[in-house]
Design brief:
The complex is a heterodimer of chains A (284) and B (347). Chain A is mainly alpha-helical and 284 residues long. Chain A has one domain: MetI-like fold, CATH 1.10.3720.10. Helices cover 73% and strands 0% of the residues of chain A. Chain A is globular and about 70 Å long. The N and C termini of chain A lie far apart (49 Å). With 347 residues, chain B is of the alpha+beta class. Chain B folds into two domains: 222 residues, Rossmann fold (3-Layer(aba) Sandwich), CATH 3.40.50.300; 108 residues, OB fold (Dihydrolipoamide Acetyltransferase, E2P), CATH 2.40.50.140. In chain B, helix 2 runs parallel beside helix 4. The longest helix of chain B is centred in the middle third of the chain and has 17 residues. Chain B is elongated and about 70 Å long. Classes of the chains: A mainly alpha (284), B alpha+beta (347). Chains A and B meet through helix 8 and helix 9 of A and strand 6 and helix 2 of B.
């Protein structure tokens, strides 16, 4: 190849590659450097592992890690688990299926913060749910449902927001399976669960892994839902990072940020591996 | 008792009648072919037998047991798909044992059955390969093997050779028939290829517009088509209408046609005045004879030569082993009365 060809290829790659290298690369670099004491906004900049050891020694950090992994993992699993049957159901067109599919994907168009406020309105002390439950006589008095300690509200909103995305990815994958393949499995004695477990799941593995990983990363770093409907007795990693930053402790915030990236990377790999192991099963 | 009993089966889709009051018995070990043009209902019937479609009315039994409402996974049938429908993520071995695992057949039994079928189909060296690493013929064999290991009461074939090239089709056709006979399987085979049907079947069911037009052995179907549709669909046929003139003592009937008087030894309903006759192109005896025509087209086909003749604005076709005839030549020929079939009115 001539130099001219190389320059041409490089120029063509620049809009994509350049964006990745400049925008993402510089952010990652700054975060890592800041976590080791460089780029101090206040005071002296020098290499130090002090921020890492300090943050890691704090209980609030380990709790935030566990909590964020809990939210990320269950949001991914529940969103995909809910999206699968819907994707299979919508696999073949039927009257109204396009409208139904569009309706199910509507949450993609609603901003998370708006959804969180709507949710608060529903579950608040004088909200719709309390009124209904009292109205039909199941609850004698209103209950406090907001900011529940198990973060069910956060999970609910995460699933509500992310399930349509999983549905979008899985519908494409499921539609790629030919009718004959599914009919052949049925003809050979496979019931609905066996067909899902042995044919649909393995053949849509890439879509499922992509949906799981993307949802996991998004939910792991959740800030919006956590601050509006999350439990008040614990913080997510994103929340912890912001609280460090609010106090002007950019180095500790960077440590949390880098940890978040590492957990997202390792967690995604583990989740993809787990998905493969569970859905593929043993070969014989 | 028939292996399969089909009684008054009908199926309609949004007002379209795909099958209409269809009744048929298939005997144990028989190879029965459903033959007909696209949209005649043959695949619909196969899907009803395999359980993927429910009939609108009527019933199906296998071995005397009514299976009309039994789901496909619980039927003792195995279907070979036109597209092969192999599981792309499983290797040949896993494809072959898939059904056996679903039926919870023991590991020893499974291994024995798979080994036997793999040996029979020449798949022993392919067991670890994925379907996309196999040729079309090998994929077809895996599809067949996957059905055979199940040892079903009935094996169903949905145009299984249509994706293969002509040479491979001939080869796999022989293999399917051999295996069906070796295992004494009751087989229902769907095709629109009349040569496939003639070569493989014990009996052929000719379908048109969701109805049975004729059920017969391949030989009878070819030699004695009942209607214009069957005569035209199975092999080449010369069809000509005429008026009955006389009947002789030798049970020969003379029919006046545009070709001239044609004699037939086949029975004609005495009340019929106008009849339709059929004769096969290869039955014409070129040489002396009462009929003649000018060759307007000639196609050399290897074993024989196809000649298209024209006479009195009529076109007919003759096949001969002799390749010396040329376009423009006038030839004379005769047809034996036994080779002239009287057709019934269609429908």
């Amino acid at each position: 190849m001539t130099m001219r060809n190389w320059i041409q290829i490089f120029a063509l790659l620049m809009p994509g590659l350049g964006l990745i290298l400049v925008l993402i690369g510089s952010v990652v670099y700054i975060a890592i450097a800041q976590s080791f004491g460089y780029y101090a906004l206040l005071g002296e900049s020098a290499f130090s592992t002090e921020f890492w050891s300090e943050v890691f020694s704090r209980k609030i950090f380990s709790r935030a890690v566990r909590y964020s992994i809990y939210i990320g993992f269950w949001s991914a699993v529940l969103s995909v688990a809910l999206a699968y049957p819907l994707a299979i159901w919508l696999r073949k067109p039927f009257p109204g299926s396009i409208g139904l599919g569009a309706l199910l994907k509507a949450p993609l168009l609603v901003h998370g913060l708006v959804a969180a406020f709507l949710y608060i309105n529903v579950i608040s002390y004088n909200g719709l749910l309390n009124q209904t439950m009292q109205g039909i006589g199941i609850w004698a008095e209103p209950r406090r449902l907001q900011n529940d300690s198990n973060a069910f509200g956060v999970l609910l909103l995460q699933v509500w927001k992310n399930m349509p995305f999983a549905l979008l990815v899985l519908t494409g994958s499921v539609q790629g399976i030919s009718d004959d393949v599914l009919d052949a499995a049925r003809d050979l004695g496979a019931g609905p669960w066996a067909r899902f477990r042995k044919i649909i799941a393995p053949l849509t593995m890439s879509g499922m892994q992509a949906a799981m990983v993307i949802i996991f990363i998004g939910a792991l770093a959740d800030f919006t839902f956590q601050t509006t409907v999350g439990p008040t007795n614990r913080q997510s990693m994103a929340q912890l990072m912001v609280s460090f930053k609010s106090r002007g402790d950019w180095h500790s915030a960077a440590v949390v940020g880098v940890s978040l990236m590492i957990i997202a990377l390792l967690g995604s790999a583990l989740l993809a591996l787990l998905t493969r192991t569970v859905m593929r099963g043993s070969p014989r | 008792m028939a292996a399969i009993g089909i009684r008054n089966l009908s199926k309609s889709f949004d007002g379209f009648q795909a099958l209409s009051k269809f009744s048929l018995d298939v005997q144990q070990g028989e190879f029965l072919t459903l033959l007909g043009p696209s949209g005649c209902g043959k695949t619909t019937l196969l899907k009803i037998i395999s359980g993927f479609l429910e009939p609108s009315t009527g019933s199906i039994s296998i071995g005397g047991e009514d299976i009309t409402r039994v789901p496909p996974e619980n039927r003792d049938t195995a279907l070979c798909f036109q597209s092969y429908a192999l599981f792309p993520h499983l290797n040949v071995l896993q494809n072959l044992e898939f059904g056996l695992k679903q039926k919870r057949v023991s590991r020893d039994q499974r291994d024995a059955r798979v080994s036997e079928v793999a040996a029979k189909l020449g798949l022993e060296t392919q067991l670890s390969k994925l379907p996309n690493q196999l040729s079309g013929g090998q994929q077809q064999r895996v599809s067949l093997g996957r059905a055979l290991v199940m040892r079903p009461s009935v094996i169903l074939f949905d145009e299984p050779l249509s994706n293969l090239d002509a040479k491979l089709r001939d080869q796999v056709r022989v293999e399917i028939r051999r295996i069906q006979q070796d295992y004494s399987l009751t087989a229902i085979y769907v095709t629109h290829d009349q040569s496939e049907a003639l070569a493989m079947s014990d009996r052929i069911v000719v379908l048109n517009d969701g109805k049975i037009v004729q059920v017969d052995t391949p030989e009878q179907l070819y030699a004695q088509p009942k209607t214009r549709f069957v005569a035209d669909f199975i092999g080449g046929a010369n069809l000509i209408t005429g008026r009955v003139c006389s009947q002789t003592k030798e049970n020969l009937t003379s029919v006046e046609t545009l070709m001239g008087q044609i004699q037939t030894s086949h029975r004609i309903n005495k009340s019929s005045e106008n009849v339709e006759l059929c004769w096969r192109p290869e039955r014409a005896q070129i040489g002396k004879g009462p009929y003649c025509g000018t060759i307007v087209h000639r196609a050399f086909q290897g074993q024989f030569t196809d000649l298209i003749l024209e006479e009195n604005d009529m076109i007919f076709r003759i096949q001969t082993n002799n390749d010396r005839f040329r376009v423009g030549e006038v030839i004379t020929f005769s047809i034996l009365p036994d080779d002239v079939v009287v057709l019934e009115a269609d429908g």
